[in-house]
Amino acid sequence: MLKGLAITPPILGRITIGKVIEKDGKRLPKKDDQFTLTSQIQTRDGWLPHPLDEQLRDNQQGKLRRIPIRFLFNDPDLNLRAEYALFDRNTARPLCVGDGVQCRRRLKGEMQTLPCPGPDVCELAQGGHCKPYARLNVLIGSDDPLGTFIFRTTGFNSIRTLAARLAYFKAISNNQLACLPLELRLRGKSTRQSHGTPIYYVDITLREELDLEATLAGAQQMAQDRQAAGFDQTALDAAAQQGFANGDFEEQEEDAAAIVEEFYPDQNTAPATTQVSGVRHKRSNPSHTLTQKLTDKSNRVSTAQT
């Protein structure tokens, strides 16, 4: 295995709730009130739709707001990776990734581990350069048992809700998260900060046609069938954990450019600096995790990002 290369779940396509458009010479993210499934092929007109997009959309009168899913792993932290991230907008390379306790940062050509106080305190993060960032991998359809679709978000509402749901579903299913038939659902709400305009975030719920008892029974049966067939879920989770840990950053440069475009929509602002050696940090409470910080901040400020 190549050291320094994060081994991540195979990606078949992307899940988005918006797209990047050109306006007044700028490329800006445009939010939507529905999901879109895209392939990994991008043209001048944007990302090409995935064939499953039309199939699922036809079953919902054209508005794709529910996606039937399963998860690849039992460990919620393998399905959803949430962290604070800072990208260099000139090179589209990740500069610093942290969890509110520690961060991995490129300094003078080498990787260093430093305290991570979070973007509210870190001097390097001032100006909105560092943001919460999460990636959710899900299984859609049955054509590829290990191929996933990825949903990326910088929204507090989505990150907090997804983290909570994954933890709860793991608990009530007796650690059989990977066997639960669930669905991604787009939800909307209005806040004072959004001036009454709906903002949308992503949730994980039971499938519309199944109640909790049927869902748990189906998961139990699937777990038994997999065990009888020799499927080793524990080994799969362990292999994924090892793969993620093999690299300093999950994103590769070929993916980072598109991510930076959504992270920093205003391309006319000054780029994030790569000169970080002089940054001073305040030490944070080691027990104050990223999930706790996201919850604290979301209670103070409602964000319009999704």
How would you explain this protein's 3D organization?
By secondary structure, the chain is of the alpha+beta class. The protein has one domain (67-300). Helix content is 27%, strand content 32%. It is built from seven helices and twelve strands. The protein has a nine-stranded mixed β-sheet with strand order 3-2-1-10-9-5-6-7-8. A hairpin with a 2-residue loop joins strand 7 and strand 8 (110-115). This is Hydrolase or metal-binding protein.
Key structural traits:
alpha+beta; disordered C terminus; 7 helices; hydrolase activity; Gp3-like; three-stranded antiparallel β-sheet
Identify the quaternary structure here. Answer: single chain
- Main beta-sheet strand count, sense and barrel state: 9 strands, mixed
User: How many structurally independent domains?
Assistant: 1
Which regions contain 5 or more consecutive residues with pLDDT less than 50? 267-288, 301-305
User: What strand order characterises the main sheet?
Assistant: 3-2-1-10-9-5-6-7-8
User: How many DSSP E strands?
Assistant: 12
Given helix and strand content, the structural type is alpha+beta
Number of helices: 7
Q: What portion of residues belong to β-strands?
A: 25-35%
Choose one word for the global shape: globular
Span of the ends, CA to CA:
35 Å
Helix content: 25-40%
Radius of gyration: 20 Å
Mean pLDDT score: 83
Order of helices and strands: EEEHEHEEEEEEHEEHHHH
